[in-house]
Amino acid sequence: MTFRQARWDEPLLWEVRPPREGAPEAHLPDSIPPELRRRKAVRWPELSELEVARHFTRLSQMNFGIETSFYPLGSCTMKYNPRVSEVLARRPGVADLHPYQPEESVQGILAILWELERSLGRITGLPHISLQIAAGAHGEYVALRMTAAYLKDRGETQRTEVLLPDTAHGTNPASAAMAGFTTREIPSKDGCVDLRALDAALSERTAAFMLTNPNTAGLFEEDILEISDRVHRAGGVLYYDGANLNAILGKTNPGKMGFDVAHLNLHKTFATPHGGGGPGDGALCAGDRLRDYLPVPRLERKGRKFHLSYDHPKSIGKVKTAYGNVGLLLRAYAFIRAHGEEGVKRVSERAVLNSNYLGQRLGEHLPRAFKPLVKHEFVLSGAPLRERGVRTLDLAKRLLDEGVHAPTVYFPSLVEESLMVEAPETESKRDLDAFVEAFLRALHDSPEHLREAPVNLSVGRVDEVRAARALLLSWRDLEKAGAQGAGGAAAGSAAHTGP
Amino acid sequence: MVRWIPGNGEEESLLLKSLGLGSVEELFRDIPEKARIRKIGLDPPMSEMQVVREVDRLLAKNRTLEEFDAFLGAGLYDRYTPAVVDGILQRSEFYTSYTPYQAEASQGVLQTLFEFQSLWVELTDMEVANASLYDGATAIGEAMLMARRLSPGHRFLLPSTLFWERRSVLENYAPRTDMEFVEVPCDPKTGRLDLGFIERESRRDCFGVLVEYPDSLGILQQDLPKVKAAIGDRPLIVSADPLALTILEPPGNWGADIVVGEGQGFGVSSSFGGPLLGLIACRHRDARMLPGRIVGATADGAGRRAFTLTLQAREQHIRRSRATSNICTNQTLVSLAFLAYATAMGPKGLAQLASELASRGQELAKALREVPGLKAPLVEAPFLWEFAVGVEGRGTDEFLRSMFGEGVLAGSSLADPRPGARAPRFPGFLTSVGERTDTAAIDRYARAARKVLGSPTSGGAP
Prior knowledge:
heterodimer, A: 7-stranded mixed beta sheet, 16 helices, B: alpha/beta, Aspartate Aminotransferase, domain 1, 2 domains, 15 strands
């Protein structure tokens, strides 16, 4: 164990150099009404370029990234983000395009988006695509808006309920509620959808059933065709949450499984970077049933020309400014083109192989929830740790000390003290074995060390309870609390405790 | 072929052997035969060099902003970003990292987000900001839903000048059938808001009021500081331009309850419309109603300052169907770009850029005012670097197309392009100056406009 993270005690920007007080240093044109002119300049420091570069470089050294660490994060698909995509996305040919330029002047990028749509249509078996999707949750929301419009057209407005398994990602119920539906959770059986419970829940009020396959336990829903039949017979829309698509490329697809609509997280399966939490990059893929309701504009091809068409009377309209996260869409395009048919299939084969291998090895040390054959991820239970007075959280923090990221913890919630582990295709056997070694060192460490972890990072265990109580959410709050200075305690006295 | 899957094809057999399997297909035996596919239908693999060449071949068919005299804006701007900013963004610890749920391994991202939140608080003079939303339009949508949580009522007041695209996004954020939009009229000559209307309507079952600063026609409404007094305790949402806030009185000073904005102009290129950056800030008392991730300061066990995601009980992964929003993935890296750009520019650099652009905006309006057949600005009201222009005697689209033929991207139409859509209340286009707009470019614009408007039949695009 040789990992030590940098520890810089890096000051906040306002502490590097205090901002100057007074009016803005600028000469405004006379046309701006005096009552709207800023009286006091923005409180913001003047730093030299080296000060700027050093500040952010030091901060970056206090952060894991894919190029420093393995992220065995279940449901997150943290794979290598090819460097070439970063180069391509910065080409002036895409970076210096404005979305409101005339179509004739952007035929090249439209050709790329067209090719990407076609590839995603083939990958999902759902040929009608919108790339105007910011992230997975946004795709869910848009699809449910489309579902609502579809149901309204059919006069089926009594369909107000969205069904989901109890293993669903939290975004599923949140999106459904935001789109104006009520939600109902279906209890799982052995980690999969219980057909009897599904039957009991389906009714003339069912608008949609949201499912990911493989599901969040890493299990393939073997009854998927039966599920699809039953949902359709009940009149519902079957929605595919594409968070776990990395497991099935070239083996099956949402269209073949009977799904009506699917969102894809291009920042997972198609290797666009996670960016510390975003920007993500989405695509919404629809079959014939919901096609007409996709957002506008839709990309169309007329001969050799590409055209952004707004002539879709049933469309729900716009869901975002412009056409999507194009800089990221280009990265996904590069990933698919480079891998091609053969490579894209190998992505899933290797991801599933890696996860089953890791599952077998770690399963010798902690109990595995559900059956051993998994797809891209698997779930362990940290419940036995309790006998030693420690928890899954302690194990996760201790793993950080090894220079690897922790797995997803406490999700899915139906497994006690759960750890959800995913090993994408870009991890080598050597790195998987190193992770197992690190995991075992952590697992067998003393309870004291586990509870004290982490000790090798820029800070020790962070007090989240105190953060929620003190609510110091900006530099202003720190000032009011008299809590400036990186070396000292932040939350000496709470500035305010909220309502 | 690219080497993004390790082991050169040899590791697979080692892994299979450990699992006691003969073939990788055995790992997919749980997929029912009827759901199986044999091929996807993608093209054959390419080397990295081939991909680069193919992308470059296609991108060469684009004509970038540099090839025109470009006057496009409407919230998305072509601004120069100091090189140090991209150097920061290309730190792989930033761009390849995951959401900072494991705070101890993520202090870098967490501190930058804390600084980003603090910066939006300073620019707006509000109290609490989140770590980002998707873009300025969805931020207005989220702010409207937040206002709905803060206040009873069913009606939402919005500007009659609101850009159709933002309006359409907003309609998609208002799924409840019991929500009604009410447009606030403004004087067609002066752009002044009808304060009496706002005061009256805000007392009729209204849960929130939206204003833009400047608005979708570029207008700086001078009565904005009076709106809060007119609506009382109804939430006031202000959609503000971040660069404008470096020289304009911040909305927090005139009573805003929620301030949103589009942050793309700070540190990322327009990139054909994305990624963008949704900004939002509110008052302390309403922090628990905010959508999205929030970073707070705290300490570690030894009392050292540390940062962490906080108030997570509002969010979808905890609260599920009762979350304040469904948002999970946000725009963190673009928040970092925003912060790094503002830091690299400094307060003086930002305010000087803003005032310089505002001056050039006046210069452009002066030049276009002299062009027969153009009404510039369309509404005689104060503006900064953007304003609406009317075209007399012929269609806006035809004019813009002809200008394109002259090498000038004069602006973006204010009309909703959907067939059968309502005609815009202010027909015309929005024109916007940028850092590339010098006096020569303004001259070429005016000259091209004269030529286009002077000729009885305008030429098409090249």
